[in-house]
Amino acid sequence: MVLVGGLATAATAPRPDPVRDYLLNALGLLRANSIDQKSVDWPRAEAEAVREIAGVTEPAGTYSAIRNVIAELGNPHTYLRGPNAARPPAPSTIEVPSSRTFGDLAELTVPGFLANPAAAGRYVSAGVAALAAADANRPCGWIVDLRANDGGDMHPMLTVVAPLLGDGVVGSFAAPDGPTPWTLRSGRLTVGTASTTESNPLQLARPRPPVAVLTSSRTASSGEATLIAFRGLARAATFGQPTAGLATGNVPFPLSDGAMLVITMVHDVDRTGRVYGNTPIPPDHPLPATATTDEVIAAASAWLHTQPGC
Q1: Residue 194 contacts by C-beta under 8 Å, 6 or more apart in sequence?
Q2: pLDDT tens-digit series, residues 121-168
Q3: 279, 285, 286, 292: CA torsion to nearest 10
Q4: pTM, full prediction
Q5: How many CB atoms sit inside 10 A of residue 102's CB?
Q6: Angle between helices 18-33 and 42-52 (to 10 degrees)
Q7: Which of 38, 95, 106, 296 has the most Cβ atoms closer than 10 angstroms to its Cβ?
Q8: Which residue pairs, CB below 8 angstroms and at least 24 apart, start in 294-302?
Q9: CATH class for domain 91-249+270-304?
Q10: What are the residues whose beta carbons fall under 8 Å from the beta carbon of 54, sequence distance 6 or more?
Q11: How many Cβ atoms from other residues are within 10 Å of residue 21's Cβ?
């Protein structure tokens, strides 16, 4: 009788459903980690998502249902990347910082950086070299161009601009369990208690220079975090157009098929305590969208030459 009962139980046990499990795992990650988790009725959303994938046999068939729930969260910075898009680019193809000098000023262009540990050292090394090459001319003021910085990993970016920012807390993440400060010490960035491998020990010929930061609607995510590190700094001002409005921190969660669920978990905060989010950050000195690069540089240069020591 025990054997027969055991067979009967086994016969009625639900069959494993890896596709359904994949879906519910993704939704569970969103529910547990998103800063917008309270905006969704999770039992209803999960039930609707399960109904939506009826008959689906591959994980890719759940993407639409997952994205529908992401849309309910209402955060444009949270997203799902398929396996092909989730693969990092070759390190040699990632743009690196560059610099130029003109007159008594220097310009440092800081591009976005796709999170790729294998490329971080190359990016920082190029940035340190660019900063050093421009500093050899002893510029009295600096322009930091973030107009095309569409984000990625902020750690290499902040490491590159560390000598322009100086030591101390330059910003933080606001999370439910408390703030996580971004701290620079001797060119090394520490976020919370985790320090970066790379550092930028360069000592500027003219320490604590005035800095003009250029922004546009393409300045996004970690590009905005880099901008925020200069916000509240008395010797810095921003020029150009409002940013994209994605000033929040994301954490990537790999899924079993190679896709990546990128979840917004924290807000960016500047050194004055101002909290940012999904609203574009306006520049201190707005310029027309039709302004040419020469006109933007001219406006920034004129301001720099009004600052002490320049």
Answers
A1: none
A2: 999 999 999 999 999 999 999 999 999 999 999 999 999 999 999 999
A3: -130
A4: 0.90
A5: 12
A6: 150
A7: 106
A8: 296/147, 296/214, 296/239, 296/240, 297/107, 297/143, 299/239, 300/143, 300/212, 300/214, 300/239, 301/103, 301/105, 301/141, 301/143, 301/212
A9: alpha beta
A10: none
A11: 12
- Sequence-separated contacts (24+) of 290-296 with Cβ below 8 Å: 291/240, 296/147, 296/214, 296/239, 296/240
Yes or no: say if 69 and 39 are a contact pair by the CB < 8 Å rule.
Answer: no
Count other C-beta atoms under 10 Å from residue 279's C-beta: 11
Specify whether the CB–CB gap between 189 and 195 falls below 8 A.
yes
Give the span between the Cα atoms of 172 and 72, in whole angstroms.
27
- Token digits for 30? 């969103």
Q: Which two tokens stand for residue 68?
A: 């529908």
Cβ atoms of 76 and 50 closer than 8 Å: no
Q: How far apart are the first and last CA of the chain?
A: 94
